[in-house]
Design the sequence.
């Protein structure tokens, strides 16, 4: 049964697909959309010694923390379970143990309360965030750039996504993290690489722009990482180590290459999107890499040149959170897309089932 848009819906959202345990309450109705609470309990410290997310540690932490996050989210919203209209949960893609923790908890709550259960694709949560924050109209173009994903999506509806390009190997966030590791900077690598790049010369090291000579919107970042490794080794062989300036120059060169790649591929993705003649065109970004000032500025300038609206949601909603899951759950519920207790966790779950499978979508796993 579809729900009338005039009916107010208040959903609990649960997210546990990677290394953030999160719960949130979102309400949506004729008076607008509001995030009543959004609790994110990051696991960074638990994985810090391992140089990446350890799935078993993540799954255990999610299992231990998910109910605590839910309780906090309800408390902060000033609501009890009885005031909800449904429970939305990330059912994939992601690390299977973590996704299972959330799905099992959501099923238990749905069984106990009789509330409708809505399984949400984590990527749909990211992709629908510009509607949660700015209420923009379909269709819009979304670039999702995170530690595990990199794809262009034309978002046509709450359950309608066309993937028109993506990375064929690493995700950009992963490349930032590897760059940081190669240069002895801390994890996650994006922020320290960006800080170091601010004092560097991007032209000192000639790093490649892979796939720019090929048509289409697919991207590749692994060659860039290898080129950075060679450049670093060249300096070390010559001088016996890296100075602060060498590090800054390497970071600046790497960041400029990622920016150029993303900007040029975005230009092509925009051509495909604009050919559909959308009435109110918008280019939106989401994911941790969208926090990068140089990349953001590059994309913003591209849109300004084309007279297009550019939208980057606030960082707390760009990175993993449960408000986006609650909101995507509301949108699904309005279409009558409700699950039952047979809902299962899906480690792989492409948003656009019709698009050819990507060769790689981040080697860290299905992190989004
Ligand atoms: O979306 P996100 O928080 O988590 C998932 O991947 O799910 O993205 C994290 C990624 C990390 O790889 C991190 O290094 C990158 O986003 N990141 C950045 C910046 N801040 C975070 N990359 C470049 N510049 C930044 N300022
Ligand atoms: Zn994500």
Sequence:
């Amino acid at each position: 049964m579809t729900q009338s848009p005039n009916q107010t819906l208040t959903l609990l959202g649960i997210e546990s697909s990677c290394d953030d345990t999160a719960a949130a309450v979102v309400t949506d109705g004729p008076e607008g959309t509001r995030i009543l609470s959004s609790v994110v309990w990051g696991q960074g410290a638990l994985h810090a010694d391992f140089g990446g997310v350890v799935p078993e540690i993540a799954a255990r932490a999610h299992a231990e923390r998910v109910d605590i996050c839910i309780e906090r989210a309800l408390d902060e919203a000033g609501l009890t379970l009885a005031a909800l209209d449904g429970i939305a949960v990330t059912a994939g893609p992601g690390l299977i143990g973590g996704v299972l923790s959330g799905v099992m908890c959501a099923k238990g709550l749905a069984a106990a309360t009789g509330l409708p259960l809505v399984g949400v694709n984590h990527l749909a949560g990211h992709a629908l965030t510009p509607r949660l924050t700015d209420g923009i109209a379909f269709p819009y173009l979304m670039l999702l750039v995170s530690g595990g994903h990199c794809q262009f999506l034309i978002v046509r509806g709450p359950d309608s996504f066309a993937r028109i390009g993506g990375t064929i190997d690493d995700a950009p966030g992963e490349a930032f993290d590897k760059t940081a590791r190669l240069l002895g900077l801390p994890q996650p690598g994006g922020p320290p690489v960006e800080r170091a790049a601010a004092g560097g010369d991007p032209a000192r090291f000639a790093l490649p722009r892979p796939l720019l000579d090929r048509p289409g919107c697919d991207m590749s970042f692994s060659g860039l990482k290898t080129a950075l490794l060679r450049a670093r080794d060249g300096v070390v062989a010559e001088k016996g180590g890296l100075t602060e300036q060498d590090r800054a120059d390497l970071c600046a060169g790497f960041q400029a290459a990622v920016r150029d790649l993303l900007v040029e591929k975005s230009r092509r993705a925009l051509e495909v999107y604009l050919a559909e003649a959308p009435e109110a065109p918008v280019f939106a970004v989401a994911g941790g890499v969208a926090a990068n000032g140089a990349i953001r500025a590059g994309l913003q300038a591209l849109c300004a040149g084309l007279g297009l609206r550019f939208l980057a949601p606030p960082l707390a909603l760009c990175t993993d959170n449960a408000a986006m899951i609650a909101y995507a759950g509301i949108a699904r519920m309005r279409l009558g897309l409700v699950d039952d207790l047979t809902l299962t966790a899906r480690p792989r779950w492409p948003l656009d089932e019709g698009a050819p499978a990507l060769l790689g979508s981040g080697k860290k796993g299905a992190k989004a």
In short: The chain has a mean pLDDT of 92. DSSP finds eleven helices and ten strands in the chain.
